[in-house]
């Protein structure tokens, strides 16, 4: 009886929490289908008017495409930097790798505004401002902690006996890496790419401070558009980001055990 009550209580709490977390997205999605330019929910005179307006406006499309490019490039850069550090730390217990790993986690822990100001000062000092690569590198440095953690988690799941068996059979370090370690760690690498890209897509403060309106991402476009008033077109951008994030999580789930990839214990 007590166990049943505990199960019902836990299920009720999780259901309420899920509804609470999903409600803002439900409201934003509903508003994006409004027939008028008002922020009303449930939507009145539902139509695809604002979706048509979004995809027919070059400014919105450019901002969305730019966000996708920055997200893809920054996640690839962050993961490329993270892998050798995590691998060196796992294989050699390198002090330098441990130091770099700890250093990589610092930007992720600091408030975004602090990181944004630091990057603003840096790019100003090197006299390289208002470029898309500034945002890409800044996002990669900020979010490199995530692939570091995930790849390290993947490497920790590699059975050392497999590595020793491969070496006994005459495999060199490079061959062991490609044929034994890499296939096991691949789901964690892909997860790193996806998670980093999602974070980059939704990041506003650093993107605005580093490049501003010269390299306008979709979050920057949304906030700048709010100065002239609200239109449901902004909600369309939020819905698109939500769909991209959902697609990313579904892809991660297809790769294997999602809770395990997130670090849950068996």
From TrEMBL:
UniProt signal peptide: none
Record PROSITE patterns: ABC_TM1 (PS50928)
Keywords of this entry: Cell inner membrane, Cell membrane, Membrane, Transmembrane, Transmembrane helix, Transport
Compartments reported by the entry: Cell inner membrane; Cell membrane
SUPFAM superfamilies, alphabetized: MetI-like
Main subcellular localisation: membrane
GO terms, biological process: transmembrane transport
Annotated ABC transmembrane type-1 domain residues: 64-252
Membrane spanning residue stretches: 12-33, 68-87, 99-124, 136-155, 176-198, 204-223, 235-256
Membrane topology summary: Multi-pass membrane protein
Superkingdom field: Bacteria
CC terms in the record's Gene Ontology section: plasma membrane
Pfam short name (any one): BPD_transp_1
PANTHER family the UniProt entry points to: INNER MEMBRANE ABC TRANSPORTER PERMEASE PROTEIN YDCV
Family membership noted in the UniProt record: Belongs to the binding-protein-dependent transport system permease family.
Protein name: Spermidine/putrescine ABC transporter permease
Lineage, highest ranks first: Bacteria, Pseudomonadati, Pseudomonadota, Alphaproteobacteria, Hyphomicrobiales
């Amino acid at each position: 009886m007590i166990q049943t009550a505990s199960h019902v209580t836990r299920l009720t709490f999780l259901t309420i929490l899920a509804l609470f977390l999903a409600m803002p997205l439900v409201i934003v999605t509903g508003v994006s289908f409004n027939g008028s330019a008002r922020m009303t929910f449930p939507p009145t005179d539902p139509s695809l008017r604002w979706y048509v307006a979004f995809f027919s406006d070059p400014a919105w499309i450019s901002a969305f495409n730019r966000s996708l490019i920055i997200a893809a490039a920054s996640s690839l850069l962050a993961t490329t930097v993270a892998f050798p550090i995590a691998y060196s730390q796992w294989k050699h217990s390198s002090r330098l790798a441990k130091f770099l790993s700890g250093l990589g986690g610092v930007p992720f822990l600091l408030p975004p505004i602090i990181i944004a100001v630091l990057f603003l000062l840096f790019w100003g000092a090197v006299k390289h401002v208002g470029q898309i690569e500034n945002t890409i590198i800044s996002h990669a440095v900020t979010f490199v902690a995530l692939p570091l953690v995930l790849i390290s988690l993947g490497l920790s799941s590699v059975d050392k006996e497999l590595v020793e068996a491969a070496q006994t059979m005459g495999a060199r370090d490079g061959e062991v890496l490609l044929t034994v370690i890499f296939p096991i760690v691949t789901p964690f690498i892909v997860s790193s790419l996806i998670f980093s890209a999602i974070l980059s897509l939704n990041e506003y403060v650093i993107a605005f401070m580093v490049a501003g309106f010269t390299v306008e991402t979709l979050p920057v476009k949304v906030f700048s558009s709010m100065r002239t008033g609200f239109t449901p077109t902004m909600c369309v951008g939020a819905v698109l980001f939500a769909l991209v994030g959902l697609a990313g999580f579904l892809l991660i789930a297809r790769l294997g055990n999602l809770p395990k990839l997130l670090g849950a214990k068996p």
